[in-house]
Amino acid sequence: MKKKNIILISVLLGALLLLTGCSMDPSQNTDGFFSTYLVQPFTSFIMFVASFVGDNYGVAIIITTLLIRALIMPLNLRTAKAQMGMQSKMAVAKPEIDEIQARLKRATSKEEQATIQKEMMAVYSKYNINPMQMGCLPLLIQMPILMAFYYAIRGSSEIASHTFLWFNLGSSDMVLAIIAGLVYLAQYFVSMIGYSPEQKKQMKIIGLMSPIMILFVSFTAPSALALYWAVGGLFLAGQTLLTKKLYMNKHPEIKVMEQEEKEFEQIVEEQKKEK
């Protein structure tokens, strides 16, 4: 789990460097592979869509964002299914894992810790638990697509010169930036449905990095990007709710585990108040 978290953090930090302009602006390098085969086609497609909606580039960005998210949705659903399956296995193995973790905390020597950790690996093997099976491949596959769309919006002079709703697509807008950040914050809380309190603590830093990053970049980036993030975040929130409904009912033990941990936390809180 820790290795996976490190990989995810590295990917997000890499994206942050790209989005804040630390990488080369594709508009200055139009002959590269990335620009020729990914960025330029996206730019052309946005213009193509805009031609059907009265050259309204705001609507064109919304439509293109929804189309992209819909195309990669099957991959996300497959990943969510794997995550739910892994959570189900963790719920079944939880009593054994908790007992081993308690002994691991009491271990006083490295040799004892190593022995107990081997027992933990044996439990993982017994229940076919491998957190890395959920992996980062879906995220890595999506990154080039989403980054190409990002640069297509960023480098288009046609988009930058248009106004949509109350903001200019080529200028930053504080209100839209805050909306985009709040949308991704809401999406994070939706994604945590079904996770145990312990898992939520482990995922908290990673989960909050995305809305903070988007809010930070949107304050200075063209509003077209904040619009893209806001629409994409709403789609992701809906997609996440759909996956929870589709797969969580197939694994009722996850709900049982979550309820048990909530009850345990309530008991702990009551004991603290009594003291």
Automatic annotation (TrEMBL):
Its main location: membrane. One of its GO terms (biological process) is protein insertion into membrane. This is Membrane protein insertase YidC. It comes from Listeria monocytogenes. The gene is yidC. It is a multi-pass membrane protein. Belongs to the OXA1/ALB3/YidC family. Type 2 subfamily. PANTHER family: CYTOCHROME C OXIDASE ASSEMBLY PROTEIN COX18, MITOCHONDRIAL (PTHR12428:SF65), OXA1 (PTHR12428). InterPro entries: YidC/ALB3/OXA1/COX18, YidC/Oxa/ALB_C, YidC/YidC1/YidC2_Firmicutes, YidC_ALB_C. It is found in: Cell membrane. The chain crosses the membrane at residues 57-77, 134-153, 165-185. The keyword Lipoprotein applies. NCBIfam families: yidC_oxa1_cterm. The keyword Lipoprotein applies. CDD domains: 5TM_YidC_Alb3. PROSITE patterns: PROKAR_LIPOPROTEIN (PS51257). One of its GO terms (cellular component) is plasma membrane.
